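Re: that chain you flagged

S.,

Sorry for the slow reply, it's been a week of failed gels. I finally had a moment to sit down with the sequence you sent. For the record, here it is as I used it:
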Amino acid sequence: MDFKQLRYFVAVYEEGHVGRAAERLSISQPALSQQIRQLEHTLDVSLFERSSKRLLPTLAAHTLYNHALPLLDGLQRAKEALHNFQGQALRTIAIGVLQTVHTSLVPQMLERVRQAQPHLVVQIYELTGIEIERRLLNGSLDIGISYLPPRQPGLHGMMLYEDELQLVIPADHPLREFKKVSLSQAAELPMLLLGEEFQVRQIWQTQLANLGRRPQVQAELNTMAGILDSLPHSKLATVLPGRSRQQHDDKALLWKPLSEPRVPLKVGLVCRDVQRQQATLGLLRTLLEDVMHPQATTM
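Prediction finished late last night. Pasting the C-alpha cells below so you have them in one place:
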C-alpha cells in the first residue's frame, strides 16, 4: 500500500463510482480498477461491494477512509512546507556559546544568519568553556564561541573581538567613587562569582594567582543573570566581561574597569577542522562584523 493507492481509494470511496473517480483522477477506468483490486489484495480485505449502479463501501473501507484522510492531508502539508526548499539543501549547524558572551552575541547572530542563510538551521547550546571544547573534539558541535586561545590541543581559534574583565559592584558599594579599581584592591573584596567550571572564574583566579592571591568567594551562582539580579541586594562584588554591561545596564550596579593590570579577554570562533568549517567560519565572522568592532564601551 502506498500514497498513490490511498489517493485512488479515497476518490472511489467519495465518488461511489469507478468511472467518476477515474475522471476525477485523470486516469483510465481499467487502471483505477486494477489499483483498487491490488489494494484489496495487499490488505486482504474487501473494500467495496459492487452493484449495478454504484460501489458500496464495506466496514473495512470506512475504517481505511478515516485513516487515509489525515495521512494524505499530512503528505500535502509536508509537500507545501518543503516547496520553499526546492533547489536548497537544508543544513544544520550546532554552535556552543559561553553564557558570558551569549546575550551580547547570539541575538544579533541569529537574525543575521536567518537573513543570509534562510535554509540553515542553527542550534545554539549555552555551555561552559570546558564543555564547548569537549563537544568540539567529539564532533557533537560544529563551532564554539569561546575565549581564546583554546586550551585543548587540536582546536583552532579565529578572533572575533576583544573584551576585558570589569568589576561590578552595587551602587552603594564603598568603591563607588573609584573610576578604576586595581587588581590588588579587587582581590580584597568579598565576591559573588560564577562557579569554578566557568572560564571567566578560571581567568580571574589565574590573574589573582599571579599576584599570589586567591578570590574572596562568599557565594556562587551558576548564571550571570542571577548574579546581576542579586548584587544590588548585597555588599558583594563580582567580575564579568565589560561587554555584558550593554545588555545588563542596571542603575543599581556600577561597572569599574580593572587596572594594574587590565584583564583582557579575546572572544573568538573555535573549531576542530578549519578547512571543513572554513565557509561557516567566514559566514559568521562576516555577519558579526559590527560586533567585532563595536564603539568603545563607556567606562
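What I noticed first: The CA atoms of residues 88 and 119 lie 7 Å apart.

Talk soon,
D.
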